[in-house]
Amino acid sequence: MKLCSTKMLPLIIAASLGLSACGGGGDSGSPSITPPSGGNNGPTWVQGQFASESSLINQCSANQTGSALTEKLWLRSWSNNTYLWYSEIEDRDPAPYSVADYFALLVTEELSDTGNKKDNFHFSMSTEEWDQLNQSGASVGYGINFKLDNGSQAGARKVTVTYNEPNSPASAANVTRGAVIVEIDGISVKDANDSASIDILNAGLFPSADGKQTTFTIRDLGASADREVTLTAQTIVSTPVQNTKTIQTANGKVGYLQFNSHIATAERGLFDALTSLSQENVDDLVIDLRYNGGGLVAMASQLGYMIAGKEATDNKTFEETSFSDKHPSINPITNQVLSPIPFIGETLGFNTSLLTGGTPLPTLDLKRVYVLTTSSTCSASEALMNGLRGVDIEVIQIGGTTCGKPYGFYPTPNCDTTYFTIQFKGVNEKGFGEYSDGFVPSTSPTLASEVQGCALTDDLNHALGDPDERLLSAALYYRDNQRCPAIAASVSRVSAANDFVDEGFMLKDDRKQTLWMNNRILSDMQGAQ
């Protein structure tokens, strides 16, 4: 198997990648743009005419090899060639817009069949930040993951800690799940009602540089009084696989695994976790995906294999992808013939410093799996559920409706920015992939996107992995009784981003926290079987 020697190596494993760092992104076959009159030999916009993206890539205004217009024209051609719904993009003159604003317009405005926005997953970030986050899970912060509650009324805004990262400023200060952030640098979270105050809250919650100190007033879970902690932002390396444990029950052993993101470093964690559970001879598995927004599809395939085993997955498709009608048989990014992604039974070496490729994966050989979900469960996490259902592994869903992203993209860099635009959709072995409104837990499923299970809200009053925590407790109850506990209740579907608005003042979403909700990377497995 030939690997591309670039920073993108962990993302795409293929005979040839086709990303800019590996030799260009492919041509659209459209005519070249006619240069403007007046002696300017640079490209210009002509409605309905598209230059090949390869003729425009990496011509950047910052290093004077190109211009902002060239960057925008590259985005336009790249989108026209690879965007899944390219025909629904309005072809606007890019001149009046900044590069970022123009990219935001290169998206469908159509609605889904159910009336929801068709594309909620269109964004960009600096290439440096993306490379760091994807390869090592590193980003600037305090090691706090938190839930932003929607404040539709004044004074209803709330920020609650969902978990912290080990060996982080948050863990050192014992800021743990269930703690409510009351004030940030003296500004009340729930009562802030002007732009200056909101800016202070955002700057505190979402630090952009190492060394920033922020004072938080928090109310710990179960505490009767607030306390004050000062945290210093630093580069945090996330631990995507946590809390692996075996729970002994009257009816056998149940494995539990908290899996937070399908990033390169997770391969080692999953390998070790499933090896441990296999050695424990667990009878069932509860996998906690409630905060897992996705990532590498090939890693989801590996996990599916480890859950189901060789016999159930042999010669079966984990996911088959398709692009727009421009590319019925060829992947426009890699220029390879489209072929299904199998269930992958060996390590791939996403991060070779942690785990090299070619090692057989451990298996549990289970016929069912319990999955804990919220609206933050997205993309590759949903692909895992869909892939297992495609080979008749029973998936029991406990929690909330997932985010609804049967789509994916190849992160594509240009001029120090990496862009993410929907390029393909996926289906399982049975040809199903219509879950754009999410997988819905139901006691009586009737639709293909409804999954047997229990609708429950997230429980922030117990630690993750605690058998008394609502979702895990419900999974254990369902296992013993084949029905939901009495506490099961309807869960309304909420925005995956969990932004909240209070009389026009909004706390922004954290790109680092919501990246995996908005992300799904295809690891093309051509030649890797």
Automatic annotation (TrEMBL):
GO terms for biological process: proteolysis; signal transduction. It holds the Pfam family Peptidase_S41. InterPro entries: ClpP/crotonase-like_dom_sf, PDZ_sf, Tail-specific_protease. Keywords: Signal. GO terms for molecular function: endopeptidase activity; serine-type peptidase activity. GO terms for cellular component: outer membrane-bounded periplasmic space. Residues 1-21 form the signal peptide. Residues 253-406 form the Tail specific protease domain. This is PDZ/DHR/GLGF:Peptidase S41.
